[in-house]
């Protein structure tokens, strides 16, 4: 799978998020094309539609919810994929209690593959769980967009050319089915999940589905890669495959360790003026990244990165990380799908 991105979407996103702060190098970065597709060429008509769809469905890059400041415990849960029973099991296992100040954060891919995406989202809303959007969730949102815009579905027949479209728009029957059967309030919850969510500053931690491009500060990440990255290639480009290059987390940990870890990300020295990074910005306060997405590598706990996709939907475990304390809790899962994608 090759993920691609359009400069327009990136410029739009950065422009809206960091309007108060001129980011050096934005121009050249935004112009850098990384648009590759599987399959043959599509017409210019499809290109324009693809760009429109991508821009329309992008999640917010990050949020740092104010209500987090009053929470006592954060319970970060890996990829659930519709395994509603196991989601219940793990909430019991960690003694979840909203009254006692527990906050659940879902690390993405709450939907698709397993038996009951709607039930998982209902439970998530009931317990006021925070969430980030995963690559499968993103395809469900894309499917919903296409269902809402039948002209796009019909005129360009996006579904039938799915294999030629960039990831996120490669909507297949299973995501379409999930979208078609999803109540509007569940879909609204899913759509509102940002690409990253930040814990209160003292935890120095953010949750996202797949990871980051280690060479870029968090505020300059591309939300599509945040939902899809696994590796960094020799040429420095991100990849959603894990066969070539090196795991993003390996480079990230090297970078953090080399820089003294808790000093934060200093890959970007200035923000418009000397020493001018906004105080308390995501770049400054995050060291630890908690993520899912990589069931192939499974549980992956390193110093600064905490990979929680232990393959629940494939009959392995559902994992949760509890903060403060970095305690790991797991529950066994039924096998709902045989093949790790
Ligand atoms: C949940 O509560 C039980 C019983 O009080 C306790 O043994 C267990 O350690 C608790 N689990 C967590 C993750 O705090």
From TrEMBL:
Keywords from the UniProt entry: Signal
> Which superkingdom?
Eukaryota
One GO term describing the cellular component: cytoplasm
Signal peptide stretch: 1-27
Segments carrying the region annotation (Disordered) are 259-279
Name a GO molecular-function annotation: endopolyphosphatase activity
Residue ranges constituting the Calcineurin-like phosphoesterase domain according to the UniProt record: 73-294
Q: Which GO terms describe its biological process?
A: polyphosphate catabolic process
Annotated protein name in UniProt: Calcineurin-like phosphoesterase domain-containing protein
**Annotated organism of origin:** Dimargaris verticillata
């Amino acid at each position: 799978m090759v993920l691609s991105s359009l400069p327009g979407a990136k410029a739009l996103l950065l422009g809206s998020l960091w309007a108060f702060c001129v980011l050096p190098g934005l121009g050249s970065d935004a112009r850098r094309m990384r648009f590759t597709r599987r399959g043959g060429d599509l017409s210019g008509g499809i290109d324009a539609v693809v760009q429109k769809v991508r821009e329309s469905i992008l999640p917010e890059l990050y949020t740092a919810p104010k209500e987090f400041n009053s929470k006592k415990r954060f319970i970060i849960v890996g990829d659930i994929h519709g395994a509603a029973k196991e989601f219940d099991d793990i909430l019991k296992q960690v003694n979840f209690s909203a009254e006692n100040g527990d906050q659940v954060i879902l690390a993405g891919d709450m939907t698709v593959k397993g038996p009951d995406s709607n039930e998982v989202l209902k439970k998530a809303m009931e317990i006021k769980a925070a969430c980030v959007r995963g690559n499968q969730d993103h395809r469900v949102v894309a499917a919903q967009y296409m269902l809402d815009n039948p002209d796009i579905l019909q005129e360009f027949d996006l579904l039938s050319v799915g294999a030629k479209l960039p990831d996120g728009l490669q909507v297949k029957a299973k995501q379409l089915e999930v979208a078609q059967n999803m109540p509007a309030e569940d879909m609204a919850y899913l759509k509102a999940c940002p690409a990253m969510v930040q814990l209160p500053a003292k935890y120095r931690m953010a949750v996202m589905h797949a990871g980051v491009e280690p060479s870029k500060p968090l505020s300059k990440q591309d939300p599509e890669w945040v939902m899809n990255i696994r590796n960094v290639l020799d040429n420095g480009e991100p990849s959603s495959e894990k066969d070539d290059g090196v795991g993003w987390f390996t480079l990230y940990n090297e970078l953090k360790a080399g820089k003294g870890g808790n000093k934060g990300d200093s890959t970007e020295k200035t923000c418009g003026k000397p020493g001018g990074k906004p105080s308390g910005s995501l770049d400054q306060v995050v060291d630890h990244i908690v993520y899912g997405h990589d069931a192939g590598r499974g549980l992956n706990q390193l110093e600064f990165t905490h990979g929680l996709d232990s393959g629940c939907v494939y009959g392995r475990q559902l994992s949760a990380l509890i903060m403060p304390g970095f305690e790991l809790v797991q529950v066994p899962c039924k096998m709902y799908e045989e093949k790790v994608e």
